[in-house]
Amino acid sequence: MIRRATDADLPALRAIQQASLDEPWPDLLATTADGPLILVAEDPEPVGYLVAIPGEAETYLAELAVTPAARRKGYATELLEALRERTAGRLELTVQESDDGARAFYDSHGFTVAERLEDYYKSGDGLLLVSESGE
After folding, report:
1. Of 89, 95, 98, which Cα lies nearest the Cα of 58?
2. Which residues contact 103 (CB under 8 A, 6 or more apart)?
3. Cα–Cα distance between 96 and 22 in angstroms, integer?
4. pLDDT tens digits for 95-114?
């Protein structure tokens, strides 16, 4: 099940963030009610989430994370599809250039490389990926 996050989800989301991301950004999860769009995948407890920042013509997918134990079970795809249902226009995100798994996932969902971002991450370069609406 995919739903909007609530403040009660924050401890679980922070644990997922720490377990799943090489360079977590804890402040991104600080506001749920009035901040970015945060969706949660449950089974029955939270197993993944995404954080999206809607704009006028595009939505920036700031984070998508799934617990290591729940990976490859479709949760990331469900979260991404739920985001597409709730937003219009282009989706944008950044990934580490060296993260082959993330790049393959987003490639399989219609994202393409728009720009290489030198030294974007502490650990190296990033890529700006984009997907037009309906892809």
Report:
1. 89
2. 95, 127, 129
3. 10
4. 999 999 999 999 999 999 99
